Chorismate synthase (Paenibacillus solisilvae), 1404 residues
Amino acid sequence: MAGSSFGEAFRISTFGESHGEAVGVIIDGVTPGVELDEPYIQVQMDRRKPGQSSVTSPRKEYDRIRILSGVYEGKTTGTPICILLNNTDMRPEAYSDIQHSFRPGHADYTYLQKYGLRDHRGSGRASGRETAGRVAAGAVARKLLERRGISIVAYTKAIGGIACETFVESEIERNAVRACDPEAALQMIQRIESLARAGNSCGGIVECRIRGAVAGLGEPVFDKLDADLAKSMLSIGAIKGIEFGAGFAAADMLGSEHNDEMNADGFLSNHAGGIIGGISTGNEIIFRVAVKPTSSISIPQHTINTSGDEQLIVTEGRHDPCICPRIVPVIEAMACLVLEDHYKRHAALLD
Amino acid sequence: MAGSSFGEAFRISTFGESHGEAVGVIIDGVTPGVELDEPYIQVQMDRRKPGQSSVTSPRKEYDRIRILSGVYEGKTTGTPICILLNNTDMRPEAYSDIQHSFRPGHADYTYLQKYGLRDHRGSGRASGRETAGRVAAGAVARKLLERRGISIVAYTKAIGGIACETFVESEIERNAVRACDPEAALQMIQRIESLARAGNSCGGIVECRIRGAVAGLGEPVFDKLDADLAKSMLSIGAIKGIEFGAGFAAADMLGSEHNDEMNADGFLSNHAGGIIGGISTGNEIIFRVAVKPTSSISIPQHTINTSGDEQLIVTEGRHDPCICPRIVPVIEAMACLVLEDHYKRHAALLD
Amino acid sequence: MAGSSFGEAFRISTFGESHGEAVGVIIDGVTPGVELDEPYIQVQMDRRKPGQSSVTSPRKEYDRIRILSGVYEGKTTGTPICILLNNTDMRPEAYSDIQHSFRPGHADYTYLQKYGLRDHRGSGRASGRETAGRVAAGAVARKLLERRGISIVAYTKAIGGIACETFVESEIERNAVRACDPEAALQMIQRIESLARAGNSCGGIVECRIRGAVAGLGEPVFDKLDADLAKSMLSIGAIKGIEFGAGFAAADMLGSEHNDEMNADGFLSNHAGGIIGGISTGNEIIFRVAVKPTSSISIPQHTINTSGDEQLIVTEGRHDPCICPRIVPVIEAMACLVLEDHYKRHAALLD
Amino acid sequence: MAGSSFGEAFRISTFGESHGEAVGVIIDGVTPGVELDEPYIQVQMDRRKPGQSSVTSPRKEYDRIRILSGVYEGKTTGTPICILLNNTDMRPEAYSDIQHSFRPGHADYTYLQKYGLRDHRGSGRASGRETAGRVAAGAVARKLLERRGISIVAYTKAIGGIACETFVESEIERNAVRACDPEAALQMIQRIESLARAGNSCGGIVECRIRGAVAGLGEPVFDKLDADLAKSMLSIGAIKGIEFGAGFAAADMLGSEHNDEMNADGFLSNHAGGIIGGISTGNEIIFRVAVKPTSSISIPQHTINTSGDEQLIVTEGRHDPCICPRIVPVIEAMACLVLEDHYKRHAALLD
């Protein structure tokens, strides 16, 4: 009930603060007998870790994971898998300035209001670093989904006002912003670098596609597949909105336009985004999320301190001027978790 | 795990099919000793029921609720409240045509894929009628929230391409589309009536504002307040997207624009929509949802039947050409449920 | 979290007070496509209802159930089944004397302490009548378990100091106390009738056997099969203890005596009661529960009223002098719920 | 749903195998701002660790805990506390003999049946070592309960047929078996040593008393306080039964004997064990559990191997001939977890 767990039949619990000793995750409900090793998970960690490119935070975290339990002789045992990441490049002293101030856009104020105290170092639990555990767990889910023939891919659709105009899947992992359009990617990188030099930041749109999911996933009425995907995405700090299929554009469409007609080969369109009535149609599941601009900027901003005094604040530290490139693997991870959970829930219902 | 329950500390479970004997809800976790009677709940039911105006379905459901348990001598007892609504104006025979066909945009196909059989009458469990139980439960939550000084209001922001340009709260319940701009409302009504005559339908945008919530609500990291609100909204059949505060527009903003600065009086803006790091800021919580056009239209569309044969289908029945007016109280109800649940969860944490 | 739900993959939620309008249950997670009708459930209701024999309460409740949802054309649809029982033979006025007094052994005092108010009529929610919903739900679980080849039988092992000395399964439903030894049954009936005449009551031991369960059910480490069975049984008001297999006698045994050895045909003994390490062994699952004497007696007892004044109280009303005969179907129902839930959970894990 | 978590408002998740890299626990829902340090927790770990005395296993585990998260500058932050214990004195090779055999009384057979494979080293997840995480979490709960004025004490009541005849609380931690009667303790120690020399083992009874709990804890109807305590206790591998207050003796009592009468000073007796209708009465909560004899004995026993071949087996290793002394802190820990959880749940209900 305190909020650090996600999923039901396939359930994860994360722990850890950005500049504490370690972050990590427990994954419970893993199918036994599935081959799993650390390198498989590490691949995903490396996509999320800082310091990948010129457009990401220069913090040096190797994000080397260790599996502490639940895997024996290279196979899952069906018992909880604990994955640990020690924090290494911690510089808590870099945060002493903000110990008593509220950085605009950050959760400093709300954490203090909620808990009455906070670990201010690098945003503590509110840090994007908490998502490392999610990505590790997502890799385990991905392994299970591979057996089911599911693939999940996310990518940058727009950054700082620059939108992709083509979808070239093979290009996504070849550019630093993980955009699906290589030409737009170049402009995005320039835009980010320019903003970074100015001490500013920008947001973007990330899209995610889930392929191979059978029809029938999702539990009416509250645990609809789209409802759980929405929750999973909004649980990522920087995400401020989500839309499925036609999404907000559906508001301007007619029923005759939006309805996905069918013929003997299946659906003739996919305005629903692969989910109708909260249940997967068998079509590609597609959704987009809005990513806000990174809150940490070095342009002076108005704020108050814990005594209520007004002041100007400049957020120092090693930050990503745009979080889209590194949020892509987090989005994929959360989507993997939701899908694997719903496969297991569906199996329970039918049993 | 099967999906018909929502909430943790304040938890509801709904049941019932559109043309079965009854629909209803159990509400568990209600604070004892609070005055509650049927007329208070009925007010909200009447806002949701069909047949309210020229732009809603002419189905005649009085939606008269009965409290079967959990209230004694006009006060809540702390035990589960069951609220029942008998279905009265059922015409299952009207659906015999679609027993073996999949209506485009409806959950006919996905339910059959999931369960292997379906109650086709009026969409069965996938019907908007299921939300009657939610609205009843939401009224109970609203009663509890009143003690906390919380008010929640939703309203139509756009329908069929016509957007509100002013926000006049007192006008919302005075027009048939529950729009916040009386002039836009007139155009919306004309638009809906015109589409209805053409056998077509349209979608829209509904906005919701939650006022009076203290700072500190929401449970990091997965059960963020916005994550739970997002799930609650996407659990409503017709909703295809949600955004908080600046929402998707945040994708095009700079950090220096999006961050909500503070002075001694509080926040200087509310691009975050009243939630930062998943925790309420004390500001107004504001979000918008995308409502798809009603799936039931009387324009012929391509589909298949359960044998896979292609056919043209016309969806008869008594439908809303635009569901926005009647979805408003459902959105408010879900928001009430989320808020009350999070108040209770917060109390548990601090205890 | 408020406690009126039980189970995870197969989940029930009960509602209703003894002398309110109705009691009932929602069952979520029911496998779709299974034949189910009201008479099948009614058979179990009739085993639980009052007025069955000379040794049960003369309250006249026909306990006629109605299925309100989740079954269509004689088959489960996979959506929630709501089962309702109207209360008919209510005599709330019979309880006006105790409105302001605490009956010894009853939950009057604790409910008032917890909630600050209470529905005193017939113990309200604390009444054994609440178990009617459980028995209805248990019948649905039993239907699902039949497909798996599971049978569950409970019976009286001892009442008022008289113990069964033989186990004749075919006799259980043939005597009014549901004892497994027909000669002991006769003595038990005499004992109960004699106590009833004296205005007193007695307790007993009920044993339950679950046959046909595969090896492998139960989720280490907290949701062990015996842990969940123990919780389910202690959730029944009158039950004060449970033991599996050798149970408390194991405390006096040596390891060499208690360990169940194996040969190629299986286990050579069943001191574990069919569950080792929280997981079913494939052996018969066997446990016993301690049933306290009925709290309602007409012998004057010392108590206080809500003002704290001391008084003598005599509990009038229509009570069972020994609840064992009627608790048997409740125990079976709870065991059915636990088993079906664990089958489904196991299926989710392996999927 | 996979079973490695316990509690709702105060929730723990354990992980780890006996001879894997580490065992540990995540605790979520901890009240923020409470002073907590490692030595406070270590005190409880030292009561559970092996090698304490002549009657416990000689395995050398220092059980040195490390808090990885959730505590900052000596205070809880309200975020999840992860506590890790590295396994140090692992001798997996000692278990190579039993890799393909099923030790009687152990979960070897059931784990293999459930999961299709198992980590056989020291019983893997089924080892008593898993309870180390519970004791650590229980210490955190104990800290929170101290603020509420709650104390929880468990002690050996009987071992190997020798029962305590007095209750001298101050003696409990002064004897190696944690018995409440120092003279009986001496006999118990002799009995255990004698059995150990013979390669055999014995069981016992442990009693637990919870003092200072307010009236009103426990959530009807399924999450009764006794139901949750029962589940928590039966989730401990060696425990085969539980009884509250008069317990199984209630089966032979009359209503006039068992009912706890009241006068202006409170209850005149406590046959109910401090819980009526699933809700605490304010009286001392008292229950007893049956502890089975340790399964690991060095007397040859009949079993089969994974190929089904019959064989004689002798369980080598470093085992406790009677687990009662070391199970005492585990029982206290689980009781602490249940109480803290129910305090928080009660706070949520009333809020």
Summary: The interface with chain C takes residues 1, 8-9, 29, 31-32, 78-79, 220, 343-345, 347-351 of chain A (CB under 8 Å). The radius of gyration of chain A is 21 Å. The helical segments of chain A are 38-48, 108-115, 131-146, 182-197, 225-234, 255-258, 324-350. The CA atoms of residues 167 and 226 of chain A lie 23 Å apart.
